[in-house]
Amino acid sequence: MDLFLQQTFSGLANGAIYACVALAVVMIYQAIDHFNFAQGEMAMFSTFIAWQLMQWGIPFWLVFPICIVISFAGGVAIERIIFGPIHDAPVLSHVIVFIALFSIFNSLAGFIWEFTIKPFPSPFPEAKLLDTNLIGNHELGMIVVVLFMLSLIYLFFRFTPIGLAMRAAAANPESARLVGISVKWMLSLGWGLAAAIGAVAGMLIAPVVFLEPNMMLGILLYGFAGAVVGGLTSPGGAVAGGLLVGVAENLAGTYLIGSELKLTFALIMIVGVLLLRPAGLFGRVVVNRV
Amino acid sequence: MALLEVKGLEAFYGRTQALHGLDFELEEGGITTILGANGAGKTTTLRSICGMVRNNGAISFDGQALIGQATENIVRQGIAHVPEGRGTFVRITTEENLRLGAYTIKGAREVADGMERVYAYFPRLKERRNQQAGTLSGGEQQMLAVGRALMLRPRLMLLDEPSFGLAPLIVKELFEILRTINREEKVSMLLVEQNATLALNLADHAYLLETGRVVMSGTSDDIASDEAVRQSYLGY
Questions:
Q1: Is B21 within 8 Å of chain A by CB?
Q2: What is the pLDDT of residue A158?
Q3: Which of A17, A209, B153, B185 is most buried, by CB atoms within 10 Å?
Q4: What is the pLDDT of residues A20-68, one digit of tens each?
Q5: Is B135–A161 a contact, with Cβ atoms under 8 angstroms apart?
């Protein structure tokens, strides 16, 4: 029983990481209807910017918002400069550009900051808040921050005119233009938000996995798994999916398949969900009358 | 001065030219209809006004040149387009659709007022306010499209085949409401229709389009009583 609890909680801790990434993935998917393969590398790059700012002596609590703002602007810029001009190009062209961005950010980070592993401080206090060894402060803090971001996103999309306009622009660009929405800016905004969420995810993940250009490689796959399991149309589902993938892979690794096949297990979950429930566990099935 | 003035309008899909120098006008407060067979360029004309096809020539709305402007900016000047196929945002509710229609309107009061007016014209939409818009019937979605356009508080409404695919009774109801909207809200209308009888009944002016050119124009009564039009478009 102890082992089971131990593994469940450590799964939740991992799951919180995946949930962060899944949230960013869903965010961009909502805006552009594609998986952004460069999402992880963008988050990694943001985290390096935060690290650099701290190296220059700026305190964490100030670095955190600055990094979010820079990442937001960066996301907007990427959309404006790179994706704007190829907007009408076929999906494959977009995929190629995602892959290009992936390797550009990866190599650029290596070029500027080198591939050596760097420690990244946790924003949460070291002292034990809870009298338990099951879950650490940082992991707990991560879950809280993710849930907080999730509620912000929910409120934004559900109750603000801009949030509604973003959903409309993604679902039906032509109709959106006809009610006066600038679809271009909505796309840019979507990229900005996704980059900002990615930055938060990166800064939360870095204390656990340490900072280096390849830190997001495996995590992005788990993040995708979380997003798909939860449902690509549902930010809440993505977070739940991320946590679920974390716990499931950990328990499976402990009791069923051993730790070598953990990643395989995540991919099997993707395939399984896509086969049985393509909209994801929490995704909305769109009813359309014809 | 006419509210909408179109001169020498040409439109292109890729290399194919769809409109060959169209001229027409629309008076403030009036309803003008554009008639023509399939492929005559009716829809293209409306899409040109809203900047959704590549075009040349001159379009002026209340003295402002529209050509070259982005669709969303044209719309902001008070032109609401009820597109072919209704353009429903299917994944969100009826009320959210209407809210989107008021995207350019500032102030919660104005939006709430607009919503009430739309519900007064279309009580059925009020009943379905929290229903996913994709599940509405064809007639309801057409009402929603008109309602969404109305939310913009437009001066000009472009209507692309509002009768398409609807039962005759629904069409009758819809066209009566359009007439009321025209009178009460002082919204000018440019109507594109396949159903010429219906359109000539509602409109005061008509233009007849053939392969991207205006071949005849006049008051609806004149057009309706023209022998050639009667035979080829009204079918009696």
A1: no
A2: 85
A3: A17
A4: 889 888 888 877 777 888 989 999 999 999 999 999 999 989 999 999 9
A5: no
In a domain, A124, yes or no: no
Query: Which of A175, A180, A289 is opposite residue B87, by nearest beta carbon?
Result: A175
The ipTM, to two decimals, is: 0.91
CA–CA dist A8, A132 (Å, integer): 14
- Tally the domains of chain B: 1
pLDDT score at A287: 57
Q: Which residues contact B189 (CB under 8 A, 6 or more apart)?
A: B30, B31, B32, B156, B157, B158, B159, B178, B182, B203
Whole-number average pLDDT of chain B: 92
Residue A185 belongs to some domain of the structure? yes
Exposure string for B137-150, b = 16+ CB within 10 A, e = fewer: eebbbbbbbbbbbb
The domain containing residue B42 runs over which residues?
4-86+155-234
Alpha carbon A226 to chain centroid distance? 10
**In this structure, are residues B178 and B202 in contact, taking their beta carbons and an 8 Å threshold?**
yes
| CB of B90 closer than 8 Å to CB of B72 | no
Q: For residue A108, is it within any domain?
A: yes
pLDDT on residue A289:
53
Question: Is B126 contained in some domain?
Answer: no
Q: How many domains does chain A have?
A: 1
Rounded to an integer, what distance in angstroms lies between the CA atom of residue A50 and that of residue A10?
Answer: 27
Q: Tell whether B112 is covered by a domain.
A: no
DSSP B29: T
Give residue A43's Cα distance to chain centre. Answer: 8
Nearest CA in chain B to A163: B100
B46 lies within 8 A of chain A by CB: no
CATH code of the domain in which B19 resides: 3.40.50.300
State chain B's maximal CA–CA distance in angstroms: 52
Q: Which of B191, B100, B190, B163 is nearest to A177 (CA)?
A: B100
Asked if the Cβ–Cβ distance from B91 to A181 is below 8 Å, we say no
Contacts of A85 (CB under 8 A, 6+ apart): none
Look at residue A230 and tell me if it is in a domain: yes
CA A229/CA A236 separation, integer angstroms: 11
Residue B175 belongs to some domain of the structure: yes
CATH number of the domain within which A44 lies: 1.10.3470
A141-145, A215-219, A280-284, range with the lowest pLDDT: A280-284
Question: What is the pLDDT averaged over residues A137-166?
Answer: 89
Q: Find the domain containing A48 and state its range.
A: 2-112+136-276
